[in-house]
Amino acid sequence: MATQRSLYEILGVTPQATTDQIKAAFRKLARERHPDRFQGSARQAAERIFQEITEAYNVLSDAGQRSRYDRQLESSSKDTLTDPREIAKALLGRALTLMKAGQHMEADEAFNQAIAHDPQSSKAHHLYGMFLAQQPSRLDEALRHMDQASKLDANNPKVLVDASRLFAKASMFQRAIRFAQTAARLTPDDESVVGWLQQLQAMAGRDGRS
After folding, report:
1. 34: domain CATH number?
2. If you average pLDDT over residues 104-120, what whole number do you get?
3. Into how many domains does the chain fold?
């Protein structure tokens, strides 16, 4: 038996899609699959597809309905997934969706659940650290997750640079410089990384004189 497609799959978007992306996808599909463009049996098929994409859009374009649908989708995923790492990936996707929707408490819980299922996920620690860093009172917690992400994925320049920026935000310049130096060694041709390292060294120098 064929697996039922999710509403996101019907519109051809990811669960992390923004409202504008969902609208754009619906408009494109509506133009392509509008029944008036077809005749005979092809028109009947187009009518079914058009109804399907319209129903998907109606749910996903409404914040309340989308949130309820996401919870149902998450529950369904937990029922079918058995690998903790796969469950963690699903939870991480939900966390990002909730974060973009401004549902920060729910996003926080989803991030925590993702890490609980897969503590060795550098991506989960990285994204959770970036999320926490948006809240000044939780910067210390953010730094712990970013430090863990950098240990789990020590050759990922993106993780290292983001860790460097967060430690600099906490005025921990020597740690920030070490992260940036490692990133610069991994990507010697990336001018943005080299520029950030130079900026950090200047910031550290000013801080040392203060």
Report:
1. 1.10.287.110
2. 89
3. 2
Range of the domain at 26: 1-61
Q: How far is CA 174 from CA 181, 201, 210, in A?
A: 10, 9, 16
Number of other residues whose CB lies within 10 A of the CB of residue 75: 9
Strand (E) or helix (H) holding 177? helix 173-186
In a domain, 104, yes or no: yes
Give the Cβ contact number of residue 143 at 10 Å. 20
Q: Please check whether residue 10 is in contact with residue 53, taking contact to mean a CB–CB distance below 8 angstroms.
A: yes
Please state the pTM of the whole predicted model: 0.62
Q: Which two tokens stand for residue 52?
A: 């399907």
Domain assignment present for residue 140? The answer is no
The residue-averaged pLDDT of 63-82 equals: 76
* pLDDT tens, position by position, 189-199: 999 999 999 99
Distance CA 12, CA 9 (A): 5
Do 16 and 52 fall within a single domain?
Answer: yes
User: For residue 172, how far is the Cα from the chain centroid?
Assistant: 27
